[in-house]
């Protein structure tokens, strides 16, 4: 058996198993060896229904069936009831005052229930148990192969793997055991240097692979997971530090900042610069005076004034001339993730630069504009793309704002000295590199994001960037009034919204789903959907209002059309998914309803709330939960008490877990790697070791480490 062997060559696979393995991304022996358990279970923790005893507080694993809602015969209390079956017997389960649970779980749903076993006239029952959905039942606890033997330490913990239709955790368990038993693991060479492993007391690769799949005890499983968590962060940091080192060896244009000139420029803003904004620009100023190109991430809440800092940085740059020349300006490129957002930045920059006479261009897939126009020095005009590109190429347009269109080969800058990237995580490093000057000059980079990111995650994902936090809101900005709305207060909330809409305000409604779920297949995912909620609101609540929808399955053109109509006031209520999380400014939209709020992370809820703080009107955020669970309500209450998005992101990481915070879907980091990001010391250790290797030129002397780094870079691309 070899690591590169296909699974099909080593195992007898059915057609459904082949499809399932492909869905999981498992093709080779090595792939399955690095398919780690999602959790471990001690068989002794699971109580069999056949062994149940009245009065026991037990954990039972099984499948639920017959769940339904009803009212108690005498008290009329709403309740959910059904049974759980673990293969050895059935047990009645009841939830009083929690009828909604019947909608959260479906027949055949695998769960783990914890509660007290009590007597009833119907036999033994478990009332109001805590429940946890699982991907699988404990691996055949009735099979003697997995039965815990008090004398056999090897069975202290058993692994549970993520399943998919066609592949069970039990099959994966046996398959991985076969791979390990072949002895192939012992031949694997470690790609982390021995001195680093010894320094942080981490097991070698061969040992860690055995321990993560077949731990003798809890210490084994924890030690192996620690090693692989460190490994993932270490290689991310290694890549980032290498990129940072390469950037620092590039030439950049020298930017001289005239303090008096900058003070005059910012004094024209319609608001007073906050201390946070001044400090942020000081960081940019220091970078401009350095020997190497700036590479900085500006992280600030929605409405904290990042665009003003971007405008000030741009002004500083274009007031400079190219080296050894007494004519022309240095240039600035400003990239935004959407055409609408690019257009809004264009409008904002016009306001900032009107008094300067400086030319500003807008380039998107559908339009080309130039400010100022010959007819109106305070307005813009449409121009041809060829003309715009000509003026950019000869340096006549110092500032060009746009989307990804800015990095097309047809766009040539004469003296690009600063690249500004809005919503940094939407652009990859390769995209940013395309803006580099063809003459060998690397532009300074200022990346910006309104996404609240925990410090450890920022240090990891953006390890090549210097970090500036903008944690202060402009003076006079009214904080959003946030209310946690339970189901019984819904009608009263609608009445309040109607009063505000009568004053001319607009409303966002955010739903977790696009379509209604299939009741047979996805009953557990019952929650408000965009399409159904828009119809309900129009039919029952806001009959005289113009309502439209926005979601990710719509074409780009349709989304842009809807947002333009909403921004212009043609639409009163926009029902959308979280696709509006990073979006446009609609100053008149001062209210937002977030349905099924318990399904969103706190940081995401905060960012959605930020959609309505774009004006001086009082803004309101109504957070509607589908449950009265004290745990859920307490978590949501943090939205009212936390000072800013950074605080919420840290709390999110702590309360919800790293997998729900981000994980592979958004950041390119596995759930195991995200666990490491909870540990600041681990992140800083990985960052230090990676930095030492790069700075001291050790990477070329560590071929195993370099090869593994290159392999991972081919497989994972960070955005």
Topology:
Blueprint: H1 7-10, H2 15-23, H3 29-33, E1 39-41, E2 57-71, E3 78-85, E4 90-96, H4 101-104, E5 110-120, E6 123-127, E7 130-133, E8 158-160, H5 169-181, H6 194-199, H7 205-213, H8 218-248, H9 259-266, H10 275-289, E9 295-300, H11 306-318, E10 331-335, H12 339-353, E11 360-363, E12 368-371, E13 381-382, H13 385-393, E14 399-402, E15 416-422, H14 429-433, E16 444-449, H15 455-461, E17 466-470, E18 481-485, H16 490-502, E19 506-510, H17 530-541, E20 547-550, H18 556-568, E21 573-576, E22 589-594, H19 602-609, E23 620-624, H20 630-641, H21 645-655, H22 658-661, H23 664-667, H24 671-677, H25 680-695, H26 703-715
Parallel strand pairs: 4-6, 9-16, 9-17, 10-14, 10-15, 11-14, 15-16, 18-23, 19-21, 19-22, 20-21, 22-23
Antiparallel strand pairs: 1-8, 2-3, 2-5, 3-4, 5-6, 5-7, 11-12, 12-13
Helix pairs in contact: 7-8, 8-24, 8-25, 8-26, 10-11, 11-12, 15-25, 19-21
Description:
The chain is α/β, with parallel strands linked by helices and 719 residues long. Among the domains are: 87 residues, OB fold (Dihydrolipoamide Acetyltransferase, E2P) (Beta Barrel), CATH 2.40.50.140; 178 residues, 3-Layer(aba) Sandwich (Rossmann fold); 163 residues, P-loop containing nucleotide triphosphate hydrolases (Rossmann fold). The protein has 26 helices and 23 strands. A hairpin with a 2-residue loop joins β5 and β6. α7 packs across α8, α11 packs across α12 and α19 runs antiparallel to α21. About 5% of the residues have low confidence.
């Amino acid at each position: 058996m070899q690591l590169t062997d296909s699974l099909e060559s080593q195992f007898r696979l059915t057609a459904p198993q082949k499809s399932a393995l492909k869905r999981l991304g498992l093709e080779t022996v090595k792939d399955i060896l690095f398919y780690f358990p999602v959790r471990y279970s001690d068989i002794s923790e699971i109580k069999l229904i056949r062994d149940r005893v009245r009065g026991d507080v037990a954990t039972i694993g099984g499948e639920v069936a017959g769940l339904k809602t009803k009212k108690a015969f005498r008290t009329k209390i709403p309740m959910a009831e059904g049974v759980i079956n673990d293969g050895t017997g059935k047990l009645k389960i009841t939830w009083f005052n929690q009828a909604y649970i019947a909608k959260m779980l479906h027949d055949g749903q695998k769960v783990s229930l914890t509660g007290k076993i009590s007597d009833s006239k119907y036999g033994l029952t478990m009332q109001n148990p805590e429940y946890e959905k699982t991907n699988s039942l404990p691996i055949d606890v009735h099979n003697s192969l997995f039965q815990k033997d008090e004398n056999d330490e090897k069975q202290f913990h058993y692994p549970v793997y993520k399943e998919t239709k066609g592949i069970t955790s039990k099959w994966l368990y046996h398959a991985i055991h076969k791979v390990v038993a072949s002895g192939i693991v012992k031949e694997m060479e470690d790609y982390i240097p021995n001195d680093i492993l010894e320094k942080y007391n981490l097991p070698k690769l061969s040992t860690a692979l055995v321990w993560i799949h077949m731990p003798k005890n809890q210490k084994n499983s924890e030690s192996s997971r620690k090693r692989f968590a460190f490994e993932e962060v270490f290689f991310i940091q290694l890549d980032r530090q290498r990129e940072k080192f390469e950037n620092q060896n590039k030439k950049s244009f020298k930017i001289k900042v005239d303090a008096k000139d900058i003070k005059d420029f910012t004094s024209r803003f319609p608001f007073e610069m906050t201390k946070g904004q001044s400090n942020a620009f000081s960081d940019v100023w220091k970078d401009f005076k350095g020997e190497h190109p700036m590479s900085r991430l500006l992280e600030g809440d929605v409405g904290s004034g990042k665009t003003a800092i971007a405008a000030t940085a741009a002004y500083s740059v274009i007031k400079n001339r190219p080296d050894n020349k007494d004519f022309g300006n240095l240039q600035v490129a400003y990239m935004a993730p959407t055409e609408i957002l690019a257009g809004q930045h264009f409008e904002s920059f016009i306001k900032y630069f009107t008094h300067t006479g400086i030319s500003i261009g807008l380039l998107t897939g559908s339009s080309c504009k130039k400010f100022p126009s010959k007819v109106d020095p305070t307005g813009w005009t449409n121009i041809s793309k060829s003309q715009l590109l000509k003026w950019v190429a000869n340096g006549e347009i110092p500032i060009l704002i746009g989307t990804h269109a800015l990095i097309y080969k047809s766009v040539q800058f004469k003296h690009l000295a600063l690249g500004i990237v809005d919503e940094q995580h939407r652009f990859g490093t390769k995209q940013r590199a395309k803006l580099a000057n063809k003459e060998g000059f690397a532009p300074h980079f200022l990346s910006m994001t309104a996404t609240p990111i925990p410090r450890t995650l920022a240090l990891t994902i953006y390890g090549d960037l210097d970090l500036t936090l903008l944690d202060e809101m402009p003076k006079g900005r009214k904080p959003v009034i946030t209310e946690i709305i339970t189901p019984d207060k819904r009608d009263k909330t609608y009445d309040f919204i109607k009063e505000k809409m009568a004053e001319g305000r607009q409303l966002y409604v955010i739903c977790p789903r696009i379509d209604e779920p299939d009741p047979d297949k996805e009953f557990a995912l019952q929650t408000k959907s965009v399409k159904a909620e828009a119809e309900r609101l129009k039919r029952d609540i806001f009959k005289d209002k113009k309502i439209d929808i926005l979601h990710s399955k719509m074409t780009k053109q349709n989304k842009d059309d809807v947002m333009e109509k909403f921004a212009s006031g043609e639409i009163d209520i926009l029902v959308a998914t979280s696709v509006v999380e990073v979006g446009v400014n609609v100053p008149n939209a001062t209210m937002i309803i977030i349905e099924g709020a318990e399904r969103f992370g706190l940081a995401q809820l905060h960012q959605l709330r930020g959609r309505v703080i774009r004006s001086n009107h009082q803004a309101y955020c109504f957070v509607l939960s589908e449950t009265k669970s004290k745990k859920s309500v307490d978590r949501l209450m943090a939205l009212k008490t936390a000072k800013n998005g950074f605080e919420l992101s840290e709390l999110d990481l702590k309360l919800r877990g790293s997998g729900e915070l981000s994980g592979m879907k958004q950041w390119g980091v596995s759930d195991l790697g995200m666990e490491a990001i909870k540990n600041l010391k681990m992140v800083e250790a990985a960052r230090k070791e990676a930095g030492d290797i790069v700075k001291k030129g050790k990477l070329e002397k560590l071929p195993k480490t370099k090869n593994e780094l290159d392999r991972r870079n081919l497989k994972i691309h960070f955005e």
